[in-house]
Amino acid sequence: MPEKAHVQEPAGKLGILLPGMGAVATTFVAGVEAARRGLGMPIGSLTQMGTIRLGKRSDKRSPMIKDFITLAKLEDIEFAGWDIFEDDCYEAACKAGVLERAHLDPMKDMLKSIKPMPAVFDKRYVKKLSGPNVKKGATWYDLAQQLKDDMQRVKEEKKCRRMVAVWCGSTEIYLEKKPVHETIEAFEAGLKKNDPSISPSMVYAYAAISSGIPYANGAPHLCVDTPALVQLAREKKVPLSGKDFKTGQTLMKTIIAPGLKARLIGLNGWFSTNILGNRDGEVLDDPESFKSKEVSKLSVLDSILQPHLYPELYKDFYHKVRINYYPPRGDNKESWDNLDIFGWLGYPMQIKINFLCRDSILAAPIVLDLALLMDFSQRAGLYGIQEWLSFYYKSPMCAPELYPEHDLYIQLMKLKNNLRHLMGEELITHLGVAAKKTPFVVLEGGVWREAPPHGPHSS
Questions:
Q1: Which CATH class is domain 13-245+361-422?
Q2: Is 248 exposed, middle or buried (0-12, 13-18, 19+ CB in 10 A)?
Q3: Which of 139, 330, 383, 411 is the most buried (most CB within 10 A)?
Q4: Domain 248-358 belongs in CATH node 3.30.70.2390
Q5: What is the number of helices (H) and of strands (E) in the chain?
């Protein structure tokens, strides 16, 4: 039996900090409050509704995850965040149009009490948006200090013992790693010089990590996946995870592509297109922001299908992704996928998928799980990149010498096995009876019987 890790108890309140308080964040906050009041169920949340098998199947031990590990209770969560618009959480949720007023109005007082702090924002990085609720400062470094002051003030005013930050803001323009991102010394010098390769989201990440606060990046742009911020997280012993919440079309890809590879079914091409009308859709209408999203979405299939290992099946398959801004659809995203596949003797077949989803409804439980599991990671003494949380991301972070794991089922196994390991339980390998060296059975004349101890079928 593995040794159980020491995990501090989740005493006191947990503050969840939300950079960006639009559709995703307000749906998350309202949903947690609804669950606390018994007005709705946190469907889609592994931490609230998932189980975990322990031991052998015959042991019949499958507790709820929230009962197996020590997680912060929903009742102990406090919320705070930043946004470029001054709308409180209730007004922002009404404008987002994800949840109906019938669901929001019973919680109106609570939602109206959450007002966004002025945001760190620069239109160069999100060209389709502008708003009045923005901090002023001479340098990125000055703005980072203002964010750190905000974080400390929230912690004191809401009497939080611990904090986590989850980016729920818009997708920034595509940036590549530069020398300023290589070391924390270079990064801090860049903050003081307003280096254009540093974006507002990096300022939030720096402020949180340097304050000892775990940080999860829910968008596809470059942020905590830089050597400088990973280095800072190790020095401060802060967990990191990212990037880009896995919802909608990419979620479907990570479900279907592993099945194609498992059955060794070939792929000639995968065409994907979307229509989306919320703030995220408007932002992604800008080519530079879309490139950040495109890189994240395109990376999934190569990693899962491994064309270098299966060239006859997947070499040079064509993969196209498009996102179209269509205001009438609001948060109700629709995606279409066409897969040109081939099977036995190369005969062609097709799969067509039409997914009508609600983007923020799928993202809200991810925000909850990441906040609770990042807090759990810190209390368990884990820090740096939390690859075991890849389950939640389109473009998961991993160590530089590794490639990211995109297969949803492998990601889930890694997540649950990490929890088993930390809690001193045996890992699940699904070897079953073979793992116990049980004698094989043989078939003779249609009758099953155990093989002799030293017979030709014994192991």
A1: alpha beta
A2: buried
A3: 411
A4: no
A5: 16, 13
Tokens of 9: 């108890």
Token couple for 399: 């160590």
Sheet holding 239-242, edge to edge: 117-118, 77-83, 13-19, 160-167, 215-217, 239-242, 384-385
The conformation of residue 400, written as its DSSP 8-state character, comes to: T
Instruction: Please say whether the beta carbons of 354 and 334 come within 8 A.
Output: yes
| Spatial distance between the Cα atoms of 267 and 349, rounded to a whole number of angstroms | 10
This prediction's pTM: 0.90
The edge-to-edge listing of strands for the beta sheet with 266-276 is: 318-325, 266-276, 332-342, 348-358
CA atoms of 89 and 27, how far apart (whole Å): 9
Do 439 and 451 touch, CB atoms closer than 8 A? yes
Q: Cα–Cα distance between 231 and 280 in angstroms, integer?
A: 30
pLDDT, tens digit (0-9, with 9 covering 90-100), for 73-108: 999 999 999 999 999 999 999 999 999 999 999 999
Cis amide leading into 243 (omega within 30):
yes
Give me the residue spans of the domains in the chain: 13-245+361-422, 248-358, 434-459
